[in-house]
Amino acid sequence: MDDEVLGRIAAGKIIAILRGDYRALDHEIASVLFESGITAIEVTLNSPDAFVAIERLVVGIGDKLSIGAGTVLSEDEVSRAAGSGARFIISPNRNLKVIGASKRSGMISIPGCFTPSEICEALDAGADAVKLFPAASLGSSFVRAVRGPLGEVRIIPTGGVTTDMAHEFLNAGAWALGVGSELVSSDVLAPGGLVRLREKADGFVNAVRMKS
């Protein structure tokens, strides 16, 4: 299972973050993202009925996309996410108990980190990758510098990542990117929203494929 999830994320290079109330349109959103070439979706647990949304996406499109839970802050939330069918766990912080619970539940663990020390501690605890957060505050030069002594770590810059920054981060050595409101926002619920979502998704996918 681990290799399949990591392979999907690596193939698409983008984890689309759904934060908010998309219950009326979540399957359509996921379909548009998949058709553009995005292969992983994170549903944040501070969204309405997040566990129900995860289960619905897993049942509806989980054979094509890896569906995970985000903003996971406790072992109990890890357990509930696993019960909903989530395949990976993402946190805004480095919580060793959450990392351990994620691995015991058979899921990919992606904790949030901000410093080299936090990255090393997360990896020692069993994390499969690290979410560099907030990435916009650190920039691609930070990723390049960290990749010097920590060349094997899978770094996922998240927070304020635009299409221009996507190209920069990947060229600096990022493994994948977490993209939230810059890709999926409440605008998708307005008339023509899915068309605009496809345009934005295509833009991010093209930026990823431009990696030199």
Describe the structure.
This protein is of the alpha/beta class. It has 10 helices and 9 strands. It is 46% helix and 15% strand. Strand 2, helix 3 and strand 3 form a beta-alpha-beta unit. The mean pLDDT is 95. It has a 4-stranded parallel β-sheet. Strands 6-7-8 form a 3-stranded parallel β-sheet, covered by helices on one side. It has a two-stranded parallel ribbon with strand order 4-5. The protein has a single domain, classed as TIM Barrel.
In short:
With 212 residues, this protein is an alpha/beta fold. The protein contains 10 helices and 9 strands.
Q: Give the strand line-up of the largest sheet.
A: 3-2-1-9
Q: What is the CATH topology classification name? A: TIM Barrel
CATH architecture: Alpha-Beta Barrel
Number of separate strands: 9
**Alpha-beta content class:** alpha/beta
Mean pLDDT: 95
Largest sheet: 4 strands, parallel
The CATH fourth-level homologous superfamily: Aldolase class I
The portion of residues assigned to helices is 40-55%
Distance between the first and last residues' Cα: 30 Å
Proportion of strand residues: 15-25%
Low-confidence stretches: none
The CATH class assignment is Alpha Beta
Tell me the number of structural domains: 1
Which word captures the global form? globular
Please give the radius of gyration in angstroms. 16 Å
Order of secondary-structure elements: HEHEHEHEHEEHEHHEHEH
